[in-house]
Amino acid sequence: DLVEDKSLQLWSKSAISVKRDIMYREPSLEAAGVLSTGVGGRTTLLIFDDPVDLRNAILNPAQRQSVKDAFYEVWMNLLDEPIGDAPPSRMIYIATPWHEDDLTHELKDNPSYKVLELAIDEKFTPLWPEKWPEPRLRAKLKQIKKRAYDRNFRNIALTEEELMFNKSALYDCKDYLTSPYDKKFDSMDKYAGVDLGISEKSGAAYTVIFVIGVEKNSSNNVKHVLDIKRKRMSSPATARAIKDTNEAWHPKIFMVENNAYHDALLQWMEE
Question: Phi-psi region for residue 133, left (φ > 0), alpha (ψ -120 to 50) or beta?
Answer without folding.
Answer: beta
